[in-house]
Amino acid sequence: MEKIDLSKYHNTLGRKHQWVRLAWSIVWGCLARPLPRSMGSGWKRMLLRLFGAKIDSTAVVYSSAKVYYPKNLVMGRYSCLASNVDCYNVASVILGDNVTVSQGAFLCTASHDVTEPLHPLITAPIVIEDAAWVAADAFVSMGVTIGEGAVVGARACVFKDVERWAIVGGNPAKFIKKRELKNE
């Protein structure tokens, strides 16, 4: 059995990234988090853009949502990061138009390579295509694409791409059925 010595681990994100993260945490914590839920959406979009986010003027980010690195966030028209969403976007998180990421969901673009003794950081983007919905407390792993119109059920854990217009659930998430919208 190989020995693991994490005393030699080096964070590859770098000092510049850490200073930007510190500044971002202070700005969001003082100027956005105190606001009730979705109040002040224009103000919060401006703060996110100030730190490099590409966010449509109709997108909504709730005050209690956590965005790790705004520069890696893209949000389309009428997309939403709801209460207590954890957007750990070390790599890009791209939300299409009309995307909902519900309360307490975790979007995680980074992990560690467990096949290497020092467990180096590995990253891959998350893409959530138009009209998709990630329900409450769901986990979406790095490198995953949630297809157009797909639904990730509450508390599901997604480690592989989700097909367009599919409904998935469970841990690990499995196909439940096709999503079919009722005619109005």
Commentary on this structure:
- The chain is α/β, with parallel strands linked by helices and 184 residues long.
- It has a single domain (12-178), classed as UDP N-Acetylglucosamine Acyltransferase, domain 1.
- The chain contains two helices and 19 strands.
- It has helices at residues 14-31, 41-50; strands spanning 54-55, 60-61, 66-67, 73-75, 80-81, 86-88, 93-95, 100-101, 106-108, 110-112, 121-123, 126-128, 133-134, 139-140, 145-146, 151-152, 157-158, 166-169, 174-178.
- The strands form four sheets. It has a seven-stranded mixed β-sheet with strand order 2-5-8-13-16-18-19.
- The radius of gyration is 17 Å and the shape is flat.
- The N and C termini lie far apart (62 Å).
- This is Putative colanic acid biosynthesis acetyltransferase.
- GO terms for molecular function: O-acyltransferase activity.
- Keywords: Repeat, Transferase.
- Belongs to the transferase hexapeptide repeat family.
- InterPro entries: Hexapep_transf_CS, Hexapeptide_acetyltransf, Trimer_LpxA-like_sf.
CATH architecture classification name? 3 Solenoid
The major β-sheet equals:
7 strands, mixed
Helix content, binned percent: 10-25%
Q: Return the CATH class.
A: Mainly Beta
Number of strands: 19
Number of helices: 2
Low-confidence stretches: none
